[in-house]
Design a protein that fits this description.
The chain is of the alpha/beta class. The protein folds into 3 domains: 6-227, Rossmann fold (3-Layer(aba) Sandwich); 231-318; 334-414 and 474-548, P-loop containing nucleotide triphosphate hydrolases (Rossmann fold, 3-Layer(aba) Sandwich), CATH 3.40.50.300. The chain is 40% helix and 20% strand. It has 16 helices and 18 strands. The protein has helices at 44-51, 84-88, 91-101, 107-113, 119-129, 146-158, 176-187, 200-203, 224-276, 281-318, 379-387, 419-426, 432-441, 458-470, 490-501, 514-518, and strands at residues 6-14, 20-29, 33-37, 59-64, 68-71, 164-168, 192-196, 208-213, 216-221, 340-348, 358-364, 368-372, 394-399, 403-406, 478-482, 506-510, 524-529, 532-537. The strands form 4 sheets. It has a 6-stranded mixed sheet with strand order 5-6-7-3-8-9, with helices on both faces. A 6-stranded mixed sheet has the order 14-15-16-12-17-18, with helices on one face. It has a 3-stranded antiparallel sheet with strand order 2-1-4, with no helix packed on it. Helix 3 (91-101) crosses helix 4. The longest helix is centred in the middle third of the chain and has 53 residues, at 224-276. The chain is flat. Residues 544-549 have low confidence and may be disordered.
């Protein structure tokens, strides 16, 4: 359907408690491949479900012609009896085909199949192409890993024959090879496509970027790189306008004060002159009344001007994104630079393929290592061994300083306790006021730091976890991070990059996000290859991104 499109006409949505999530959204999504970006909690997934026809807006309407296939962000929760065919969304068609082959002439079976008589072969072929040849249509879904479930669900989307695909964070849990395969396939998708993602590599292949914010929907023609440049220019202009508005307000306040002082001086001189001239009291009273009337008029004029300028400051402030305004206080001394912090001596990693099972490694202070490799190569296992959560099958692992491990689930902060309480417990030397200031500089305001950690977004929980460990007394000298960029919105991701680039201790980070790793000022890469682990310095001429292919 060449003219297929999805449209929003005055769409608003309110949460069950009456809070408005967004209001009066108007836009058209056509055959251009579109990336949808925005802060966590702004309503991107809800908007996607409205476009998919799964959620009814509180006001306005969604207009669509043709079919839409929606893939939710989470595909982990599946029924106990679910199969690969269920994950791929083809079980109904396959069941109808089986009944037809058994002799069924029911109209509903033929309607279910439609033109998809070859779907069984297409599924087998797609599984083989995506490195999932060990699966078939009836493989129980609970036997699949998170990455495998995501890949099967994506196969189903690409096989759906829909006029429009809506994909919510499709590259989560995918290694670089799978990410690249998906990007290639989506580039070849001939119909409408809307992708909600924080993956800059994927977003760079889009035809346009649409940003959802409290101000509404804002469309930018071009890919993410173009959007980022345009956004940066917008922010520069917004900051400049805010500074101008603040300056104008201050200037008006000074002018009011100066005029008030001049008026008071004139009034005082007039009163003094009148008394010296022995003017009648009635004349002095009339003079005073005129002076007070003039002063009152001036005050009203200036008050109106101040109100207008204050509103201008408020409006300008609304255009400034404070999401990237973070600051991390350094807690380690320069002496850690030459200190040995971890030694792996002929370690044999458990539950790891033979090629990457054995490893010897020395880590020194301020060494920043990106741990790179495909799914299942042993990256998470390595970090758990260094964290002391898993024992090696052979060899020795010695870690001398304090260490912190943040897993993919960000399970470190106690979900029932506030960030402030946990940060205070980790460092009893800092006052509550100092801790509140440091947390605010990480983007965790007064309301966020006092609620249970379970109520924070993924990005906020990550910042909270980092604050609790980096502001501890003493601070850790070894930081172990496992896929920290998963589920983060772009501003939070960029803030995390800034935080980690300033971290002064040793660090090992496992990630499939090459753009994220590029921004961490790594000193080395520990790469899981077919010939074992290889430690490579940055800039040695090795294209480490290709090692994930």
């Amino acid at each position: 359907m060449a003219n297929f499109h999805l449209a929003l006409e005055g769409v608003s949505y309110a949460l069950p408690d009456g809070t408005s999530l967004f209001s009066d959204l108007n836009d058209t999504f056509d055959l251009r491949h579109t990336g949808l970006v925005g802060r966590n909690g702004v309503g991107k997934s809800v908007l996607a479900r409205i476009l998919a026809g799964q959620v009814t807006p509180s006001q306005g309407r969604r207009v669509a012609a043709g079919s839409v296939h929606y893939l939710a962000q989470q595909v982990d929760a599946v029924a106990d009896d679910a199969t690969v065919a269920d994950l791929a969304g083809v079980q109904r068609v396959l069941a109808a085909l089986q009944r037809i082959e058994a002799g069924s002439a029911a109209h509903e079976d033929y309607d279910a199949v439609g033109d998809r008589w070859d779907v069984a072969r297409q599924l087998r072929r797609a599984l083989e192409q995506h490195g999932l040849a060990h699966l078939d249509a009836q493989t129980p879904a609970h036997l699949l890993s998170g990455g495998e479930r995501t890949r099967v669900a994506l196969i189903g989307a690409l096989l759906s024959d829909a006029d429009f695909l809506i994909l919510d964070e499709p590259t989560n849990h995918l290694d670089q090879s799978s990410r690249q395969a998906l990007i290639t396939q989506l580039a070849q998708w001939p119909r409408g496509l809307l992708v909600i993602s924080h993956d800059r590599q994927l977003l760079d292949t889009m035809d346009r970027i649409v940003e959802l914010s409290p101000l509404g929907l804002h469309s930018h023609g071009g890919n993410y790189a173009f959007y980022a440049r345009a956004k940066a220019h917008e922010q520069q202009r917004a900051v400049a306008e805010l500074e101008r508005a603040k300056w104008d307000r201050q200037r008006e306040a000074r002018a009011l004060q100066e005029q008030r002082e001049r008026q008071e001086k004139r009034q005082a001189r007039g009163t003094r002159s009148g008394k010296e001239a022995n003017q009648a009291k009635i004349l002095l009273g009339r003079q005073k009344a005129r002076s007070e009337q003039s002063t009152g008029k001036l005050r009203k004029q200036h008050a109106a001007a101040q109100l207008e300028l204050t509103q201008r400051v408020h409006d300008a402030a609304q255009q400034v994104d404070e999401g990237l305004s973070i600051h991390l206080h350094a807690g380690l001394d320069a002496g850690v630079a030459q200190r040995q912090v971890a030694v792996l001596d002929a370690v044999e990693l458990p539950f790891v393929p033979a090629a990457n099972r054995q490893l010897s490694l020395q880590v020194r202070g301020q060494q920043r290592i990106g741990v790179i490799g495909p799914n299942g190569s042993g990256k998470s296992t390595l970090l758990k061994v260094l964290a002391g959560q898993l024992a090696p099958r052979a060899g020795t692992c010695t870690v001398t300083p304090a260490r912190v491990y943040l897993d993919q689930a960000l399970g470190n902060p106690d979900p029932a306790r506030s960030v402030l309480a946990q940060a205070s417990e980790a460092n009893r030397l800092l006052s509550e006021g100092e801790l509140r200031m440091r947390l605010a500089q990480l983007g965790l305001d007064a309301d966020k730091v006092t609620v249970p950690s379970s109520l924070l977004s993924g990005g906020e929980r990550l910042k909270a976890a980092l604050a609790c460990v980096l502001y501890a007394d003493p601070p850790p000298q070894l930081l172990l991070l496992d896929e920290p960029s998963n589920h983060l919105d772009l501003p939070s991701l960029q803030a995390l990059e800034t935080m980690l680039s300033r971290y002064p201790g040793a660090m090992l980070v496992a990630s499939h996000d090459t753009a994220f790793l590029d921004n961490l000022a790594l000193t080395d890469q520990l790469v899981a290859t077919a010939d074992g682990w290889r430690l490579l310095g940055v800039g040695q001429g090795h294209d480490w991104k290709q090692s994930q292919q």
